[in-house]
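Q: Could you fold this chain for me?
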Amino acid sequence: MNRLRDMRNISQDMERKLIEVGIETPEELYNVGSCRAWIRLTKLYPDLGINKLMGLEGAIEGIRWPRLRILTRRYLQDFYKNHYREINMKKIVVAGGCFWGVEEYFRRLKGIESTRVGYAQGHLADPTYKDVKAQVSGHAEVVEVYYDRTIISFEKILEHLFRIIDPTSLNKQGEDEGTSYRTGIYYETDEELNRINEFINSVKNNYEKEIVVEVEKLDKFFDAEEYHQKYLVVNPTGYCHVDFSKIKDEELK
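A: Sure. Below is the predicted structure, expressed as structure tokens.
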């Protein structure tokens, strides 16, 4: 059987990546259907945008076969248009005290697709607001944020969180006190963890006291009761510890 490594311009690293996505022979590589496999290669690259997508090393420009390159480019362009949300919409879960104000702050930001309030990082299954507020479930009040990373970056999300919280205050934000009001950033991938740590290291000298924001892998996000969702939209005079004036005009939707 012909092998990928027998082809010119195929490095061992590229061969490994191709095999991972199901391309094992030159024939499969030339096959138009294999263009779809290039898309799966992009999952190996964390910062995917149309420019980077079109310039992945080895994926297009590193391949010297014009027909495959043209077909792949066309497919990637169509895929990007049809799967924009899948490619660019990302999720982050944060805690900043009472979730009413935190959700409303993020909801107003340009690039935020959707928000949901809920509970995370606890030990009780299907917690209620009563359980969480009584500090018996171990959960934090959190906000699940979906954002378009071509408009607002992961690091910018973290910057906004630090604008509205006191990251040196343990289990207390505004007038609310208790473990459910702790601050936190809850990640899903090691790459996100690295970026969180880099961000915190970059801002820690801005504070006299130690940063006590909880950084953990997300554990079982539970939706809060429906009357908590968009609470300050429905009840604009409701309690809120968050200062919305910290959003710059150019950052508003």
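A (continued): DSSP finds eleven helices and eight strands in the chain.
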